[in-house]
Design goal:
Two copies of one chain form a homodimer.
Chain A lengths: L8 H17 L6 H8 L4 H7 L2 H20 L10 H20 L5 H12 L3 H26 L6 H19 L1 H8 L6 H22 L1
Helix pairs in contact in A: 1-2, 1-4, 1-6, 3-4, 4-7, 5-7, 5-8, 5-10, 7-8, 8-10
Chain B binds a DNA duplex through α3.
Chain lengths: 211, 211
DNA sequence: CTAATTCAATCAAACGATTGATTGAATTTC
DNA sequence: GAAATTCAATCAATCGTTTGATTGAATTAG
């Protein structure tokens, strides 16, 4: 089995198939034959490249991590800044998150796979959490603390950061329900902006009260 | 196949097994033999009582609907009331929701099954949504409108209601991640209250800004 | 009342189909 | 031509479902 260096055609195709099918149907409900068919290759290729179905799952998680860091940027320590500027930064991040979750057709498989892994508490979740999520959440806490003037490591702010992100993530997880109730056929550009505006208003209201 | 009248032992045991295993492992990953073993009966009982695995899934959804309406009460039209009282009502509902999602050991299987069905957009979701969720969300919108004085049917308030509920639901879906970051072994009484307090503060801040 | 019959319910066993994995030969790549 | 890769074919195991037999409690018949 190779590691990750060579982006062979078959290898990349299998990962793409995994991201789509694992996210769309779930890990258990996705057969190796369905994966191979979608990748346009033979079932034996899965064992050859990844050692097996589980190996492909982890390779998909690594691919998610790779792409997500490429988009969201490597987690960095945000520089000290005035409250208004930090708030603007948070607003930008929140809107980017909503856009990433609800639109971005090329990111649909990524998001789907990630949410599946989260719902199933799968092995890929641990990797993504430790390598990305953990630091991003800490970064969020620091920005919030710059706005409210609180302690970035306090339980209160850590929960606040989760509740802000959670709103956005829920709108993706609960998409079937939201669309039915809002009488939207699906999430389009206008719908995505309506959600972002709503959550942005929430962000400002919450942080203003927290000051 | 019976309908629902007789709460036969085997029938009830199979539904209990379904609620637990479907929610815990997912529908596809749960075998009929595992279901029968947990229910202490024979695999053939599934086909006999429910017509098959899919039938058991729907019976579980009906059971969820039955229990959830028994707890949350049938969706009713909230009477007109002053803003402060409506806000208090919303606060109580939010705290009850958090408590139901994060604690309530007897409700763990119910919540798990429901969230699974939501994540998989399963056939049980449509039933629960149409029979309960839809009306409950409308009830929520009316209460919010009483606080802010806006139109309960406006897109803005409908999205607001989703963002309030979504916060609570996310804390349950993202439990593995939240617990890791908060360094909590699991959700206990203190943790549940910390989350409820956080979301209650968000509720007040958002509705105050919305007035 | 007793015997014959029907019925819902459960069981062990087996069905064909599908699962993930493996094999060794064929093919491609360099 | 040697290594890397893909292929068809096959493996044992498990999948959801079905079968025919069996049980004990109702129901019916005489």
């Amino acid at each position: 089995m190779l590691d990750d260096s060579s982006p062979s055609g078959t290898r990349a195709d299998l990962i793409a198939a995994g991201l789509h099918l694992f996210g769309h149907d779930g890990f258990a409900a996705t057969s190796t034959r369905a994966l191979a068919a979608r990748a346009g290759t033979n079932v034996a290729s899965i064992a050859y490249h990844f050692g097996g179905k589980d190996g492909l799952r982890m390779a998909c998680a690594e691919e998610v991590l790779r792409r997500i860091t490429a988009v969201a940027g490597a987690p960095a320590e945000p520089p000290q800044m005035p409250p208004d500027e930090a708030l603007g930064w948070l607003d930008t991040m929140l809107r980017a998150l909503v856009g990433f979750l609800t639109q971005a057709p090329q990111a649909a498989d990524i998001v789907g796979f990630m949410l599946r892994e989260m719902a199933e508490d799968g092995p890929g979740l641990a990797l993504i959490y430790e390598s990305f999520f953990r630091h991003k959440h800490r970064e969020l806490c620091r920005l919030i603390a710059m706005v409210t003037g609180g302690d970035p490591d306090s339980q209160s702010i850590r929960l606040l950061a989760f509740s802000l992100m959670g709103q956005a993530i829920y709108f993706r997880i609960g998409q079937p329900i939201v669309c039915r109730r809002m009488e939207w056929p699906q999430y389009g550009e206008a719908e995505s902006r309506a959600i972002a505006d709503r959550l942005s208003a929430n962000l400002h209201a919450i942080l203003r009260a927290e000051k």
